[in-house]
C-alpha cells in the first residue's frame, strides 16, 4: 500500500480499511488477494461443472488428485475408487499438487465448499460415489478395503450409490444366504467372478445404511397436489404490481445435475454457522403433515419504521388474522439497521410461524420489495447467498426457511397504499405503534430464537451457488466477509459518533455510518478536502497521540506549542489559541450569518458539514443555505489545517513567526472567491453538458454574500470578477 501513501512505509490507516468499500469508510482500493481467490473459485466451478461442460484440464486434474491422495486416505481407498475429492471423503496431499490445483483446493476449504440443499432428489443422491461417501456416519470404521469391497468394485463394477442400490435389492423368492445360492441373480454374479454374492449384497446394504441425513437413499418427500399453484401460475412481476397473490415456491432446487448442488461460503452465509462435515450430514428438510382442505387463511403482515434512514431508525411489525385463525402479534424489530422492508419481512416470518404448517395461507403485506424477494427474485438471491441484501440477509434467510417448512400452500400479496383496505391500514398502524417499543434482549427471547433456528436450519440453503458464481460475484462476497471480520477502528468509531451527536444537537436526523461516508463524496466539497476529512474521521493525521510512544525529540510533537495541550483535531479546529483559527471562524460566522446558517461548530459539525440541514419557517429545506454551509465550513476548516501545518512544519514552531491578520483575511477571501469563480464556470452547459450546475443553484448559494449586490446583473454567473465581502479592496491593496 506504499503507493497510496506516496511511497511512505509507515501507514496511519491500515490496508484493510483502505480496501473496504466507500460506504464502509474505505477507498475500494484493488485487493489482489480477494481478486485472486475469486479467480480460483471460478477455476473450482469449472472443475466441478457437468461432464459435458468440463474443460480438458479438469479430467487431468482428476488423475493428479487421485494419484496424490493423503497417505491415510490412500490406505482406506484404492486408486480406482478415487474420483473427486469434493464429492468424496478423501483429500489430496496439497504439497504434491501443482500451484493452481493447490489454490483450488485451498479456496474450497477456506470458503467451505459443500454439496447441499434442504432436500436433495433421489436422482441426485444415487449419482454420488459410494466409497468414501461424504455423508458416512462412521468414516473411520468403513470396510472399504476388505475382500468383499474389492469384489464389489472389481467384479460387480459397483462404484456409485445407484450401483450398490441395484445389488442390494434382492427380489428373488428362491434366494438363500449361502455362496452356492441357485437364484438367477446370484448365478449371474458368480459368472462375473463373485464367489459369495450374498456377502456382496449384505455389504452393499450396510454401506448404504451408513449414509446419514439427507443423502440416505430412503429419505423421501411426499408430493401433494398444489391446486393454488396451478391457479396462480408462476410468480411474475406483473402480478406483484397488480396487487395479485403470488405463489411461494417451496422447492429450493429440483435439478438432477449433481454440480448444481455445490454451494460455497457456507460457513458465513447461513442461519446457523457450522463446519462442512456437520452441514453435509444434516437431516433433510422434510415438510410434514397433510395439507388441510379448509378455506385459505388470510393474514396481514406489515412493517413500519420511525425515523427511517437514520441512525435512530426503529422498526416494528404487526400480524393480524381478520378471521381469527391465529393470535395477532406485534413487536419491535430486531437487528442493528431497521427499515420498513426488514420489519415487513419479520412480520411475514412471525405470521408463518403462528399458523399450523398444513394450513393454506395468503399473506398480505405493505412491502413490495419483500414480496419480490420472496417470490420472483428468490432464486437469484439464494444463488448469491442473500449477500446482495445487506443487513436484511438474516431475516430473509429465516423467513424463507419458515415458508419452505410449510406443507400448506402459501401466496404473498403486495397491498399498495392506494388499495383501500381497512384491515391493512389498522395493521400498519399497529406496526407503527410497535416500533415505538424498544427491542428486548432477554434470556427468554434468545432461547426462543435458538429454538426457532434449530427448527428452521434444515430448510436453509447455506452459502451461495457455485454453478452460477462469477469472479465478480465471488470477489464481492469475499470482500463482504472480510469487512465483517475487520475490527472497527477506535478513533473512527468515536468520530462517527461525534458526527451523529452534532447532527442531533442541531435538530437534524442522526445519520448512519453509510450516510456519513457518502457525504464525503459530495461534489460541493473539494476533492483534496474530502481526503482531509476522510483521514480526519479515521484519525489518520499524524498529530497528538501519534507521537506519544516515540522517543525524543519526536515525542514533543504531540503537544501544541502554543497551548501546552495534546494536539488533536478538535484542539486544532476549536480550542487552539492560534489567532488564525479564531479569525477564520469569525469570517465564516459573518458570512454564514447572512444566510442564517451559522451555529457554533463542534468537531462533528466539521466532519459532517456535508450533512448540514437548514429549513425555513414552513419546514422546507433551504438548499442554497445548505450548499453555502458545506462550502464555507469545509474550506475554512481546511485553511486552518494548512496554516497550522505551515506554522508547525514549514516554520518549525518559531514563536516569533505569525501570519498577519490582513493576510489571514486575504487568504480566506481568496479561497472563497475561487469557489465562486469555479461555480460560475461550472454553470456553462456548452462545456459541461449534463454535468453543469444549475444557475439558480449557484445564485441561491451565494445570495446575500456578494459585493455590490445592487449593481449585480440578474445573471451574474456570466460575469467574471464577482466576489464575496471585501475581497476586492484587499486585493487592490496588494494583500490578497
- Strand content is 5-15%
**Spatial strand sequence of the major β-sheet:** 2-8-7-4-5-6
- Low-pLDDT runs of 5+ residues are 726-736
Mean pLDDT over all positions:
91
Largest sheet: 6 strands, mixed
Rg, Cα atoms, Å: 34 Å
Label the structural class.
Answer: mainly alpha
List the helices and strands and how they pair.
Blueprint: H1 15-19, H2 32-47, H3 56-67, H4 71-74, H5 99-110, E1 114-115, H6 122-125, H7 147-154, H8 161-168, H9 184-191, H10 197-209, H11 227-232, H12 237-241, E2 246-247, E3 262-264, H13 276-280, E4 297-306, E5 314-320, E6 329-332, H14 340-354, E7 361-365, H15 368-374, H16 378-383, H17 393-404, E8 410-414, H18 422-435, H19 443-456, E9 464-465, H20 471-485, H21 490-505, H22 513-519, H23 527-538, H24 569-575, H25 579-593, H26 603-607, H27 623-650, H28 661-682, H29 685-688, H30 695-702, H31 727-732
Parallel strand pairs: 4-7, 7-8
Antiparallel strand pairs: 1-3, 2-8, 3-9, 4-5, 5-6
Verbal overview:
This is Reverse transcriptase zinc-binding domain-containing protein. InterPro entries: RNaseH_sf. With about 725 residues, the chain is mainly alpha-helical. Among the domains are: about 140-210, no CATH class; about 245-250 and about 295-465, Nucleotidyltransferase, domain 5, CATH 3.30.420.10; about 490-720, no CATH class. About 45% of the residues lie in helices and about 5% in strands. The protein is built from 31 helices and nine strands. The chain has helices at about 15-20, 30-45, 55-65, 70-75, 100-110, 120-125, 145-155, 160-170, 185-190, 195-210, 225-230, 235-240, 275-280, 340-355, 370-375, 380-385, 395-405, 420-435, 445-455, 470-485, 490-505, 515-520, 525-540, 570-575, 580-595, 605, 625-650, 660-680, 685-690, 695-700, 725-730; strands at about 115, 245, 260-265, 295-305, 315-320, 330, 360-365, 410-415, 465. The protein has a six-stranded mixed beta sheet. Helix 27 (about 625-650) packs across helix 30. The two termini are about 40 Å apart. Residues about 725-735 have low confidence and may be disordered.
Amino acid at each position: 500500500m506504499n503507493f497510496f501513501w506516496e511511497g511512505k512505509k509507515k501507514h496511519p490507516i491500515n490496508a484493510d480499511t483502505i480496501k473496504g468499500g466507500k460506504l464502509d469508510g474505505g477507498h475500494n482500493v484493488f485487493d489482489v488477494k480477494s481478486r485472486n481467490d475469486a479467480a480460483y473459485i471460478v477455476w473450482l466451478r469449472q472443475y466441478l461443472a457437468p461432464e459435458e461442460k468440463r474443460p480438458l484440464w479438469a479430467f487431468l486434474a482428476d488423475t493428479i488428485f487421485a494419484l496424490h491422495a493423503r497417505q491415510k486416505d490412500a490406505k482406506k481407498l484404492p486408486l480406482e475408487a478415487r474420483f473427486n475429492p469434493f464429492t468424496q471423503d478423501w483429500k489430496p496431499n496439497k504439497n504434491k499438487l501443482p500451484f493452481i490445483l493447490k489454490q483450488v483446493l485451498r479456496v474450497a476449504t477456506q470458503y467451505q465448499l459443500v454439496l447441499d440443499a434442504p432436500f436433495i432428489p433421489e436422482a441426485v443422491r444415487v449419482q454420488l460415489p459410494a466409497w468414501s461417501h461424504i455423508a458416512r456416519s462412521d468414516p473411520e470404521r468403513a470396510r472399504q478395503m476388505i475382500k468383499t469391497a474389492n469384489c464389489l468394485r472389481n467384479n460387480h463394477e459397483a462404484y456409485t450409490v445407484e450401483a450398490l442400490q441395484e445389488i442390494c435389492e434382492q427380489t428373488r423368492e428362491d434366494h438363500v444366504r449361502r455362496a452356492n445360492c441357485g437364484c438367477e441373480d446370484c448365478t449371474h454374479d458368480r459368472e462375473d467372478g463373485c464367489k459369495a454374492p450374498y456377502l456382496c449384497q449384505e455389504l452393499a446394504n450396510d454401506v448404504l445404511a451408513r449414509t446419514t441425513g439427507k443423502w440416505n437413499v430412503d429419505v423421501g418427500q411426499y408430493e401433494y397436489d398444489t391446486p393454488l399453484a396451478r391457479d396462480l401460475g408462476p410468480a411474475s412481476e406483473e402480478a406483484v404490481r397488480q396487487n395479485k397473490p403470488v405463489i411461494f415456491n417451496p422447492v429450493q432446487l429440483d435439478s438432477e445435475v449433481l454440480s448444481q448442488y455445490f454451494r460455497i461460503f457456507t460457513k458465513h452465509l447461513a442461519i446457523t454457522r457450522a463446519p462442512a462435515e456437520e452441514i453435509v450430514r444434516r437431516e433433510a428438510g422434510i415438510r410434514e403433515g397433510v395439507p388441510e382442505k379448509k378455506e385459505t387463511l388470510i393474514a396481514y403482515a406489515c412493517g413500519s419504521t420511525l425515523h427511517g434512514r437514520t441512525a435512530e431508525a426503529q422498526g416494528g411489525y404487526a400480524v393480524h388474522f381478520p378471521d381469527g385463525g391465529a393470535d395477532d402479534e406485534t413487536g419491535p424489530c430486531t437487528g442493528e439497521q431497521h427499515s420498513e422492508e426488514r420489519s415487513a419481512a419479520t412480520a411475514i416470518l412471525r405470521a408463518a410461524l403462528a399458523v399450523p404448517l398444513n394450513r393454506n395461507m395468503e399473506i398480505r403485506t405493505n412491502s413490495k420489495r419483500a414480496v419480490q424477494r420472496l417470490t420472483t427474485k428468490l432464486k437469484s438471491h439464494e444463488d448469491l447467498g442473500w449477500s446482495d441484501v445487506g443487513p436484511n440477509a438474516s431475516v430473509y434467510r429465516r423467513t424463507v426457511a419458515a415458508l419452505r417448512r410449510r406443507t400448506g400452500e402459501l401466496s404473498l400479496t403486495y397491498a399498495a397504499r392506494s388499495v383501500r383496505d381497512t384491515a391493512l391500514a389498522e395493521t400498519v398502524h399497529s406496526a407503527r405503534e410497535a416500533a415505538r417499543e424498544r427491542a428486548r434482549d432477554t434470556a427468554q427471547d434468545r432461547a426462543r430464537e435458538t429454538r426457532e433456528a434449530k427448527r428452521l436450519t434444515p430448510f436453509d440453503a447455506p452459502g451461495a451457488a457455485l454453478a452460477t458464481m462469477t469472479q465478480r460475484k465471488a470477489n464481492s462476497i469475499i470482500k463482504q466477509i472480510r469487512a465483517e471480520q475487520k475490527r472497527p477502528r477506535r478513533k473512527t468509531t468515536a468520530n462517527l459518533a461525534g458526527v451523529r451527536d452534532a447532527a442531533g444537537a442541531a435538530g437534524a436526523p442522526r445519520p448512519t455510518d453509510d450516510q456519513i461516508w457518502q457525504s464525503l463524496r459530495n461534489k460541493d466539497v473539494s476533492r483534496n478536502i474530502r481526503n482531509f476529512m476522510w483521514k480526519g474521521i479515521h484519525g489518520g493525521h499524524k498529530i497528538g497521540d501519534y507521537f506519544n510512544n516515540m522517543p525524543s525529540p519526536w515525542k514533543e510533537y504531540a503537544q501544541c506549542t502554543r497551548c501546552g495541550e495534546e494536539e488533536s483535531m478538535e484542539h486544532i479546529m476549536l480550542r487552539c489559541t492560534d489567532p488564525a483559527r479564531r479569525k477564520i471562524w469569525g469570517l465564516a460566522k459573518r458570512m454564514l450569518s447572512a444566510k442564517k446558517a451559522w451555529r457554533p461548530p463542534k468537531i462533528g459539525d466539521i466532519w459532517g458539514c456535508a450533512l448540514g440541514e437548514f429549513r425555513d419557517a414552513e419546514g422546507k429545506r433551504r438548499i442554497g443555505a445548505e450548499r453555502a454551509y458545506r462550502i464555507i465550513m469545509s474550506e475554512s476548516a481546511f485553511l486552518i489545517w494548512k496554516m497550522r501545518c505551515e506554522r508547525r512544519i514549514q516554520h518549525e514552531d518559531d514563536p516569533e513567526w505569525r501570519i498577519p491578520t490582513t493576510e489571514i483575511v486575504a487568504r480566506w477571501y481568496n479561497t472563497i472567491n475561487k469557489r465562486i469563480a469555479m461555480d460560475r464556470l461550472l454553470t456553462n452547459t456548452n462545456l459541461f453538458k449534463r454535468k453543469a450546475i444549475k444557475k439558480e443553484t449557484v445564485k441561491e448559494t451565494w445570495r446575500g454574500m456578494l459585493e455590490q449586490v445592487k449593481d449585480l446583473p440578474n445573471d451574474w454567473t456570466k460575469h467574471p470578477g464577482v466576489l464575496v465581502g471585501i475581497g476586492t479592496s484587499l486585493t487592490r491593496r496588494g494583500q490578497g
